[in-house]
Design goal:
Layout (H helix, E strand, L loop, with lengths): L3 H56 L8 E5 L5 E3 H16 L14
Antiparallel strand pairs: 1-2
């Protein structure tokens, strides 16, 4: 037997669910676009840093920023005074955003 009394409720619920899904897909699309923009910005900044490091190394190979701390990252690269500056700012930015242990989200030297 068909429950005609609830058909309208069921159809209304299905429409509401479909709208929530559509809204969620739109939001995800917006987040993907924003993430892509940030990834492109990060790639540009990373390239600038590498160019500036190379230029500084060419004119001042013994600059204090290139001084090694004696520790190494898991990829084998040495930790330098320059990387300490990055780590400090990364952690500070994470804490400002409520991240309890931001150091767990970046490479750490040992």
């Amino acid at each position: 037997m068909i429950d005609y009394a609830n058909i309208g409720t069921i159809l209304g619920a299905r429409a509401a669910i479909a709208q929530v899904v559509a809204d969620g897909e739109q939001t995800i699309g917006e987040f993907r676009g924003a993430l892509a923009k940030e990834e492109m910005h990060s790639a540009g900044l990373n390239h600038l840093v590498e160019v500036l490091k190379a230029e500084l190394r060419a004119v001042a190979p013994g600059h204090r920023l290139f001084k090694q701390t004696g520790k190494r990252f898991d990829n084998g690269h040495p930790q330098t005074q320059l990387s300490l500056l990055y780590e400090a700012k990364f952690d500070e930015a994470g804490r400002k955003r409520g991240v309890t242990h931001p150091e767990y989200l970046r490479a750490r030297a040992r």
